[in-house]
Design a protein that fits this description.
With 84 residues, the chain is mostly helical. The protein has four helices and no strands. It has one domain: Roll (Thiol Ester Dehydrase, Chain A). It is elongated and about 50 Å long. The protein starts with 21 loop residues before the first helix and ends in a 15-residue tail after the last helix.
């Protein structure tokens, strides 16, 4: 189990995320970020050169390997806040 003091500034961790398929990009966008550059391939290609994944989906793809590959070995010492 690792704790905060086990990490040093400048440490580098490398993670890999699986590529997204066109179908995954479009399905995610329809549910969470229905902009044309994510849902309409012809439009996206004409404006940007290719279909573009949502920034939300990109962030989740990057975050998933961190959560699965690193976080299970790290102590979670959470806090709480009292709201009156």
């Amino acid at each position: 189990m690792k704790y905060l003091e086990d990490f040093q500034p400048g440490q580098i961790y490398r993670f890999r995320a699986e590529p997204l398929s066109k179908e995954e990009i479009i399905a995610f966008a329809h549910e969470w970020d229905p902009q044309r550059l994510h849902t309409d391939e012809n439009y996206a290609v004409s404006v940007h050169g290719s279909l573009i994944a949502s920034g939300f989906q990109t962030m989740l793809q990057v975050f998933k390997p961190v959560m699965h590959g690193m976080m299970p070995e790290i102590a979670n010492i959470g806090g709480w806040v009292s709201i009156r």
